[in-house]
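[Discussion] Sanity-checking designs against the backbone

I'm trying to build intuition for which residues belong where. Below is a C-alpha cell string of 293 positions. I'd appreciate it if someone posts a full sequence so I can compare it with mine line by line.
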C-alpha cells in the first residue's frame, strides 16, 4: 500500500522525539524509511513508513501520552524476526506480555517501547502479508463492551468498509461479559484494523497521543466524516481534530493542506497556517483563499 493509497494514517504525538523515533523504528523493523519532514508552525511533522504502512509523527510537546489502548500488531513470517524486533523495542521499554509461546501464537510479545508506544509482535507464518501492521483498539474502563458499537460506527462512515471475523467472550471467561468482543477484524478503505474489549482494571484509556488521520479530497468528504464521527456524543476540536463518542481521536484533513504547507513560499505557508489554526472543521475554500492571498 503506497502513501497515496492509505486513506487513514496513524498520527503519533511525541514530545520532541518524532524524527528520532522514526529513525529508531525504521532501524528496528529493518523495513521502512522517512518520507518527508515538514515544519508546521513551531512543530516538525515527520512522515515515515514501516513495511509499507504509513505513519505520521508530530513534535507536539508533553501534553499527550501514548497508552496501550491503541497498539500496533505486527505480523512476522519467522520466529527469528519476532525475537530480533523484540530485542530492539524492549531496549529502554517495558514488556506488557512477555516474549513467549501462547495458545494463539508460537512466539508473541506485547511491548511498550522507550517512547511509550505499544507494539504486539506475533509470529503468523505463511510468508508475505497483505498488511504487516494492524492498528488495534482496546476498549476499556467506561468504554468496555462498546467495541462492537464502535466498529458499527466506523464501518458505517467509510464508503469502503467491512466487518471481518469476530471472536466473542463466552460464559466463564470473565471478567469480560459473555458476548463482548475478544477480538474483531474490520477494514476501512482497504486498511485492516482490529478491536477488542477488556474488562480488566486497566489504568489507561484512549488519548490524543494517537489519532487516526483521514485524508479527504473534497469538502463534502470532510463534512461527512466530521458529522458522523462526532455524532452521538463526540467532541469537535480544533485544527481538524475531533473525538468520537468512544474517546478515539481523529483528524479530518484535506489533502490540499499538505500541498500548501510544503510550498517554498514562506508567506503563503504563513497565511495558511494562521488560517487553519483558527479552524475547527477544515474549510477548503477558506484555506485556498488564504493560500492565494
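Best answer:
Here's mine. Compare freely.
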Amino acid at each position: 500500500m503506497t502513501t497515496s493509497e492509505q486513506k487513514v494514517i496513524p498520527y503519533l504525538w511525541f514530545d520532541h522525539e518524532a524524527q528520532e523515533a522514526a529513525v529508531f523504528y525504521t532501524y528496528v523493523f529493518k523495513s521502512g524509511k522517512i518520507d518527508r519532514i515538514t515544519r508546521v508552525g513551531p512543530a516538525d511533522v515527520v512522515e515515515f513508513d514501516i513495511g509499507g504502512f504509513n505513519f505520521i509523527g508530530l513534535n507536539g510537546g508533553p501534553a499527550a501520552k501514548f497508552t496501550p489502548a491503541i497498539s500496533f500488531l505486527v505480523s512476522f513470517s519467522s520466529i527469528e524476526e519476532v525475537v530480533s524486533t523484540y530485542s530492539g523495542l524492549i531496549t529502554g521499554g517495558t514488556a506488557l506480555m512477555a516474549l513467549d509461546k501462547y495458545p494463539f501464537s508460537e512466539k508473541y510479545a506485547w511491548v511498550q517501547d522507550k517512547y511509550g508506544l505499544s507494539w504486539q509482535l506475533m509470529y503468523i507464518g505463511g510468508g508475505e502479508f497483505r498488511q504487516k501492521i494492524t492498528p488495534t483498539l482496546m476498549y476499556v474502563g467506561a468504554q468496555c463492551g462498546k467495541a462492537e458499537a464502535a466498529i458499527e460506527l466506523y464501518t458505517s462512515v467509510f464508503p469502503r468498509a467491512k466487518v471481518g471475523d469476530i471472536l466473542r467472550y463466552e460464559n466463564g471467561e470473565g471478567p469480560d461479559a459473555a458476548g463482548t468482543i475478544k477480538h474483531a477484524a474490520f477494514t476501512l478503505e482497504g486498511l485492516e484494523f482490529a478491536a477488542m474489549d477488556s474488562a480488566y482494571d486497566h489504568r489507561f484509556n484512549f488519548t490524543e497521543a494517537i489519532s487516526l488521520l483521514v485524508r479527504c479530497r473534497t469538502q463534502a468528504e470532510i463534512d461527512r466524516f466530521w458529522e458522523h464521527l462526532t455524532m452521538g456524543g463526540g467532541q469537535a476540536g480544533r485544527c481538524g481534530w475531533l473525538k468520537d463518542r468512544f474517546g478515539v481521536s481523529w483528524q479530518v484533513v484535506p489533502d490540499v493542506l499538505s500541498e500548501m504547507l510544503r510550498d517554498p513560499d514562506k508567506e503563503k505557508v504563513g497565511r495558511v497556517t494562521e488560517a487553519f489554526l483558527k479552524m475547527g472543521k477544515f474549510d477548503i475554500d477558506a484555506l485556498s483563499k488564504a493560500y492565494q492571498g
